[in-house]
Amino acid sequence: xxxxSLMVPSALxxxxxxxxxxxxxxxxxxxxxxxGFANLENFLSVxxxxxxxxxxxxxxxxDRRAADVEALQKKxxxxxxxxxxxxxxxxxxxxxxxxxxxxxxxxxxxxxxxEKDVYVxxxxxxxxxxxxAMVAAAARYNxxxxxxxxxxxxxxxKEMKTYLxxxxxxxxxxxxxWANFNYAVLxxxxxxxxxxxxxxxxxxxxxxxLRDFNPQRFHGSWRMFWDYGxxxxxxxxxxxxxxxxxxxxxxxxxxxxxxxGGNFYYLEGAQETLDTLSVNYRFRNFIMTWENxxxxxxxxxxxxxxLLFKGTNxxxxxxxxxxxxxxxxxxxxxxxxxxxxxxxxxxxxxxLQCVRNRNKETACTIENGSLCASMAQLGNISARLGGxxxxxxxxxxxxxxxxxxxxxxPLYRSPWRFPE
Length: 420
Description:
Blueprint: E1 25-30, H1 35-46, E2 49-55, H2 59-73, E3 78-80, H3 83-87, E4 94-97, H4 104-113, E5 117-120, H5 128-140, E6 145-147, H6 155-165, E7 172-179, H7 201-205, H8 232-235, H9 237-247, E8 256-262, E9 276-282, E10 287-293, E11 305-311, E12 314-319, E13 322-327, E14 335-337, H10 343-357, H11 366-384, H12 402-405
Parallel strand pairs: 1-2, 1-4, 2-3, 4-5, 5-6, 7-10
Antiparallel strand pairs: 7-11, 8-9, 9-10, 11-12, 12-13, 13-14
Helix pairs in contact: 1-10, 4-5, 5-11, 9-11
């Protein structure tokens, strides 16, 4: 049974929606306020697509986005406050999920069970158990899935990977990843308020714990509270850690993880997530480190975010504005590469082609999304436990440490049920 109490079709009954390159793909969007709508815009701009329905818990957002879609495609989509009604529609082929992180798992599993292909925003979930449930659902219901880690489709990043694969950097012993952004710290706490008109707050909370409405825990800033997000390491970390793993040709979790963190920069801020965090990921042949400093916007090599690969012959430093090679002595040549800023559109085009061809190997699969989200979660769990070193047993799905195991799976609030 769906978490939302819809009837579930048999996995064996799932049929491809599209058989030809000229078929129109019909989209529904769940979560319309930010990246969800940006993703929809990319799809409408690159393929033979139409948006037939929108769902959001905020009536003002729904009305504004419905008008935006009408301006883009000359036809107004239907609107729903409850995503379950959108999923009941048989004319929807693909669902975009752009809701807060704590909602991704239930909506994803429900969409797969309703025979929709899915584009889900990163991080794919707010816990490791939810990530694993989503991977299982995509396989069970035989769906085409893409995760919104669009750098996998970027020319800049593909060229970076080609360079790394060439071996020119020599032996790479360290990958360092960082993200320093002002938005990750909040002003001091403010009092709870009445629920804004037109907002279905009960639905916004969904499986998260019941609590009074507070504007600091709502649009955008929800990322800084553990019930809904994981701070900078889950928001930016999945993008940048992904590029580190891709560049090193790694598709498994590290052997051990240890972290240290706290709220040290802005002591009066309302955020629960860690404004200061360092994570050490130990792989067999190298270490990867993560660093975030929220509330400041400076970093290594003059970049407030990015990653570097340090090899015996030189160091490659990258972010979305380009990548550069800094030689170790004169062992290799300097190099600088600029972006074309088409990552999002390239990612959308890849997914549309995969939907039409029923190709499960999208540019960023659900398995890869799960890996990167789990990497971020591992860092937060270790830091929240005071820096304990962790090893996650992917076969038995435990740490073997009771305190750490408590962080693996959220307790869903009734009537919502975890999708076993």
